[in-house]
Specification:
single chain; 420 residues; alpha+beta; Naphthalene 1,2-dioxygenase Alpha Subunit, Chain A, domain 1; Rieske Iron-sulfur Protein; seven-stranded antiparallel sheet; 23 strands; 21% helix; binds FE2/S2 (inorganic) cluster; binds fe (ii) ion
Length: 420
């Protein structure tokens, strides 16, 4: 982050603290329809138009460090195998043999010279080409070259492996846009995978994710955990294209002037030297559309992934990726006893999920009125509708497109209001 960008963020923090209403020109946000959390039809649209067309964080290179290493990945509902090829590329394929559909790998992870289907022994290279079949003479004139494994887009940001089921999707870098540059200081290409744990929750996946997409809840839900670290009135939200967002919140002021410390002690033992002032002194978190929310600090990259498992069930995946800590166990930012339970902060965030889902399914729930502080949630929903297609959503489930490009980075009408 340049000194000018840091100054702008600091100015915006003061602007947020001093305003007595939403910024001039910021639209009033219409209610989010209740059915977006409960309707099977809307869930099907999300699956088809969002999860099959967005870049999804699937794996970390440390899980498949050498050529030949593979992992099975089924979290997005399709059978996928991710493979480290001989030339260093990481490939993703449907885990579906071109013969009669058996999986080409059955173990969760492993290392192979080739991917050999156990049913009739067809074998594929690490690039997915069909290399050998048994008794080829019985297939007559048979062209192996048209029977490769069906590939899936797979691109990396550093050691972070993303997949996209849409062959027409823009590149991962285009998808991330300016965020890819902002992330350079965090060394996604160097940090090691330290912990990855999953927990199933009984609520719509957006209920769980949205608790991590605003700071309005912090004083109530986290009075002793997050509130001492974060001044929610000075939080600065930034909206990016493609539905992404960022929050940067400084710590509360001690004695009315000096900022308190903002970093949570998680027993990390190493630092990412290149991390700049904002991430070191504030709570900074990115929402990457559709299902990634990550705190990024000088000690840890901590993506939380929210995966739909049906309209009223989801899985939260808690990742800790950290600079090289040497030998032994690395830090675990999100869980207690290496995955035994969620940490206190996430227990607080998820505390009401089951009850909220029940409420949302009742006639008592009409919709969600969002405040300016919760604008990132609205921005996410607007982009969701654009991906689904504004003409494809039943009107009672659609959100109005009220936040226009003026509010999407690098545009920001607040800046003009600061200099007034
Ligand atoms: S199904 Fe894979 S070899 Fe027959
Ligand atoms: Fe929270």
């Amino acid at each position: 982050m340049t000194p000018q960008e840091i100054k702008t963020l600091r100015d915006l923090m003061e602007y947020e603290a001093q305003r007595t209403a939403p910024p001039e020109g910021f639209p009033r946000l219409p209610d989010i329809p209740a059915g977006r959390y409960t309707d099977e039809g809307f869930y099907a649209l999300e699956q088809a138009e969002i999860f099959k067309k967005s870049w999804l964080f699937a794996a970390h290179l440390d899980e498949l460090p050498e050529p030949g290493c593979f992992i099975k990945w089924e979290q997005a509902g399709e059978p996928v195998v991710i493979v480290h090829a001989e030339n260093g590329d990481v490939n993703a394929f449907y885990n579906v043999c071109s013969h009669r559909g058996a999986p080409v790998v059955t173990d969760e992870k492993g290392r192979r010279l080739r991917l050999t289907c156990q049913y009739h022994g067809w074998s594929y290279s690490l690039n997915g080409e069909l290399q050998a079949i048994k008794d080829p003479e019985d297939f007559g004139d048979f062209d192996l070259s048209c029977r490769s494994l069906s590939s899936i887009r797979c691109e990396r940001f550093g050691k972070f492996i993303f997949v996209n089921f849409d062959p027409e999707a823009v590149s991962l870098l285009d998808w991330l846009g300016p965020i890819a540059d902002e992330w350079q200081e965090f060394q996604f290409d160097q940090c090691r995978l330290s912990a990855r744990h999953s927990f199933d929750l009984d609520c719509n996946w957006k209920v769980a994710m949205e608790a991590n997409t605003e700071v309005y809840h912090v004083p109530n839900i986290h009075p002793t955990t997050v509130a001492p670290l974060l001044d929610h009135r000075r939080n600065v939200n930034t909206l990016y294209r493609n539905g992404h967002g960022r929050m940067v919140a400084p710590p509360p002021r001690l004695n009315g002037s000096e900022d308190a410390a903002s970093t949570r002690d998680v027993g990390a033992r190493a630092e990412i030297a290149t991390v700049g002032e904002i991430a070191r002194t504030c709570i900074q978190s990115y929402g990457i559309f559709p299902n990634w929310v990550s705190q990024l600090t000088e000690f840890v990259l901590g993506p939380l992934l929210f995966w739909p498992n049906g309209v009223n069930k989801c899985r939260i995946e808690c990742w800790t990726i950290a600079p090289d800590w040497g030998d032994g166990e690395g830090p675990d930012y999100w869980t207690v006893n290496r995955g035994e339970s969620l940490c206190k902060i996430l227990l607080e965030d998820t505390e009401f999920g089951t009850e909220i889902q029940k409420s949302m399914e009742s006639p008592g729930f009409k919709g969600v009125p969002l405040s300016y502080q919760e604008a990132r949630i609205y921005h996410w929903n607007q982009h969701a509708d654009r991906m689904i297609g504004l003409d494809s959503i039943p009107s009672e489930l659609a959100v109005e497109q009220v936040i226009n490009e003026d509010w999407v980075y690098p545009n920001d009408p607040r800046l003009a209001q600061i200099t007034k």
